[in-house]
Amino acid sequence: MLKMALCAYYAVWGLLLEVAVAFGPVPRITWEHKEVQLIHFNESKVSNYSTLLLSEDKNVLYVGAREVIFALNAVNIAEKQHELHWKVTEDKRTKCAVKGKSEQTECRNYVRVLQQLNDTFLYVCGTNAFQPTCDYLNLISFELGGKNEDGKGRCPFDPAQSYTSVMVDEELYSGTSYNFLGSEPIISRHSHQSPLRTEYAIPWLNEPNFVFADVIRADPNSADGEDDKIYFFFTEVSVEYEFVGKLMIPRIARVCKRDQGGLRTLQKKWTSFLKARLICTIPDKNLIFNVINDVFILKSPTLKEPVIYGVFTPQLNNVGLSAVCAYNLSTVEEVFSKGKYMQSATVEQSHTKWVRYNGEIPNPRPGACINNEARASNYMSSLNLPDKTLQFVKDHPLMDDSVTPMGDRPRLVKRDVKYTQIVVDRVRVLNGTIYDVMFIGTDRGALHKAISYENGMHIIEETQLFPNFEPVQTLVLSSKTGRRYLFAGSNSGVVQSPVAFCDKYTTCVDCVLARDPYCAWKPLEASCIDIFKEGEMERSWIQNIGGDASSCSDKVRENPLQHTFKHGSTAELKCSQKSNLAQVVWKFKDDVLRVESPKYRLLEKALLIFNLSEGDSGVYQCLSEEKVKNKKFSQVLAKHVLELKKMQHTTVGPTVTAAPTEGNSDVPKVSAVSTEGSTAHISTTHMVPVTTARILSKPIGPVLTSVASSTELFNSIPDAVPEKTMFLKSNDNFLLMFLFLFFFILFLCLLSYNCYKGYLPGQCLKFRSVMLLGKKKTKSDFSDCEQSVKETLVEQGSVSHQSGEQPKPAHDTGYETEPDCGNSQLQAGDSQASREARDKPFDVKCELKFRNNSASFCDKYLQRHPFWMIPSLSYATGDLKLELLKQSVL
Ligand SMILES: *[C@@H]1O[C@H](CO)[C@@H](O)[C@H](O)[C@H]1NC(C)=O
Ligand SMILES: *[C@@H]1O[C@H](CO)[C@@H](O)[C@H](O)[C@H]1NC(C)=O
Ligand SMILES: *[C@@H]1O[C@H](CO)[C@@H](O)[C@H](O)[C@H]1NC(C)=O
Ligand SMILES: *[C@@H]1O[C@H](CO)[C@@H](O)[C@H](O)[C@H]1NC(C)=O
Ligand SMILES: *[C@@H]1O[C@H](CO)[C@@H](O)[C@H](O)[C@H]1NC(C)=O
Ligand SMILES: *[C@@H]1O[C@H](CO)[C@@H](O)[C@H](O)[C@H]1NC(C)=O
């Protein structure tokens, strides 16, 4: 019984979990590529526009593409100012091809580093046919200095490999790989005085994938004399967790700017390199985002401290989940300056595990920057540091404490999308509140714009930046007041987009419901404006980020569209509705129309009325109803009047009176406000300009004929798949699948319970007796197993609470030697299934928790469950697993 309950619990738990995540916030508006006017830059025969550098002072956007560097006008990137070809010599290309690389693609020069050195020079590096080269680009003549420095350690050899770089005080810091094969990762500083690099050792960097680097300056007024720090972000293969496959871990690493390396130990190596795990999880839903794709560090004078925004995905991401986590800098600094270190503990059978180091920590603190306190103890530079400190940091670059996100959970979790890039803008809206607007690029060429509001996220809009759905590879924000733009780079070109499309909102209600910090309604002009483009802000403007449109009073003209029709024909009444959060409601003679009836058919942008008769003449209104925080705002989008054509007119095909305007989808929305449960004034009687109506019938254009047969009708009905959902995949199918799955498992559980009780005849009884015979002990066995699991977990998570104690080697309780509390007692019928399940890397939990026959349900459940929740079960850290275990033992 307990087992059954567990199984059911498990199934329900999994179900709830998926449903909860299935409906992340939906972007309110989806702008298709052709709906928005974006500025493009691309040149024929040039590809891979993947490196962007914005110079805000000069208003220039530098673009590094394949074998070309461009300088574009940052106000209008279609205006090219300069271009420089930087080609690979024929000789080098041949040599590269000889080494087995593709001459047409890989053996080219991909510009990877583009950094501002000083006013007149850019520092640029390219892969140069697997011989990375760096040079100085003179911005006045727009020519290379011809120095052709060796770019090893600053730029990858292979264009497909990850890289990141940042220029700090004319010194280049980069994270990349150091050799042809790309097997030697490195974080280095290129400097004439003191070049430094990481130690080539697995504990320092283990197959990292670099995504971002930036400097955070120390407060010059602070008394502790701290150093500026350079932070690197990457995903690497875990050394600290035991796992069947390669477990990825997102990291933050940092070095100090004034680091000079050690004198004997760590000569020309970082003495301040420390790294920690970045956590981006939803513990109560058991979701772990362990691959970091991009980072943006928000620094603003209005912020007390910088905030680090990261976009994450899970390692196995077959449903396309993404998350945004934000970290405050003090949490990061706390981990590095006060946290515990990790230490590798060699265990018997040459397993290396990492556990918390609880021993004595040398003084000065290993990895700390030289500050006033260190100077007071006569450590003036890293060259003076004692060997003890240096040896310690060499062996312990990894912190045991992790960096937890603000609020202990992601800011945003979204399904059916893979986020690749992020930038964040800090905006002060009309009433003085400050919002951090996140712009997030996807792997399908779209951009999501989101704000956090009262603990929830609101995705204001989704914009298709690239017509060919290519991944957004680089995203840059220009946040100069009055001139805010986004620049996005991809393989095929660069796109410039405004930060908002306020003028697309044509009514006050629409403008306010958008909840866009950049937009406000200007009643005098009756237009939705970008508040940062106007000279000064005015009190009369209407803006409410909460979406309360009560103060709107849209005035509208009365101008309904007239249609005449014949008996038995079909009418198509157009009404287009942009908001994905609104519902379309049709009213006929002021009553809500029951569109489910077979007489009607609701399409994405129209209503069809079949078999028209006298009773159908009258006024039809199309309303958009949008609910924001229990307040419903409705606007009349369109109004149609249908009239019966007199029967005596028997001439074939009288034309429709109202001119049909095909393709006029940009119908101005004019509205009337009505609010429920609020003080807003109600003006439902306002009339509307007209949308189009088209009468569907025999295919002679806008002509009325007699009864259309149903087959003709369906041939001429436009495809009902809504255009709007092009990027927003429907989740309904998933829900159905989950429900089906749930009932299926319930059925299995019931079946076996009945079988177990002996209620079912024949085969089942045989099976049952086999099962019962095969099992001797029940309860005690189960708890033994549980006990050992707990032990294992404690060690794996390296939660050693005895303070001041040296970490003792843990006895090896890896998966191989785990006590068998799994499927071994299963009979032939189930062995296939269980073997399959065991072959998968994620069957651990199941084996641990379910004994005997209920294990087979669980196996089946897992097999039928190709979802992320399963991996997350097993690669959870010790703490998480324990938590889970507690839950399920209840
Ligand atoms: C290239 O630029 C043109 C406009 O100059 C634009 O219409 C086209 O969509 C761009 N192509 C891509 C792939 O971005
Ligand atoms: C900029 O850097 C280059 C290369 O180091 C140097 O030659 C030049 O004098 C510098 N220019 C200025 C204005 O500092
Ligand atoms: C360069 O762009 C092409 C498409 O234009 C793409 O197939 C290729 O993977 C890109 N190469 C790199 C290294 O990004
Ligand atoms: C930083 O984040 C932590 C965790 O959410 C929080 O406790 C702390 O107050 C934050 N610090 C600041 C200065 O915002
Ligand atoms: C500004 O408006 C928002 C949204 O309605 C509200 O939550 C916030 O309290 C307002 N701030 C001030 C200072 O009035
Ligand atoms: C059309 O409507 C009339 C009544 O208005 C009804 O008698 C007739 O059966 C309907 N025809 C079809 C095909 O539904």
From TrEMBL:
Compartments, as annotated in UniProt: Cell membrane
Transmembrane annotation, as ranges: 734-756
Membrane protein topology class: Single-pass type I membrane protein
Compositionally biased tracts (Polar residues): 795-805, 822-832
Keyword set, alphabetical order: Cell membrane, Developmental protein, Differentiation, Disulfide bond, Glycoprotein, Immunoglobulin domain, Membrane, Neurogenesis, Phosphoprotein, Signal, Transmembrane, Transmembrane helix
Gene3D superfamilies: Immunoglobulins, ligand-binding face of the semaphorins, domain 2, YVTN repeat-like/Quinoprotein amine dehydrogenase
Main location: membrane
Signal peptide from the UniProt entry: 1-22
Molecular function GO terms recorded: chemorepellent activity; semaphorin receptor binding
Chain's role: Cell surface receptor for PLXNB1 and PLXNB2 that plays an important role in cell-cell signaling. Regulates GABAergic synapse development. Promotes the development of inhibitory synapses in a PLXNB1-dependent manner. Modulates the complexity and arborization of developing neurites in hippocampal neurons by activating PLXNB1 and interaction with PLXNB1 mediates activation of RHOA. Promotes the migration of cerebellar granule cells. Plays a role in the immune system; induces B-cells to aggregate and improves their viability (in vitro).
Family (UniProt): Belongs to the semaphorin family.
The protein's name: Semaphorin-4D
Lineage: Eukaryota, Metazoa, Chordata, Craniata, Vertebrata
Encoding gene (name): SEMA4D
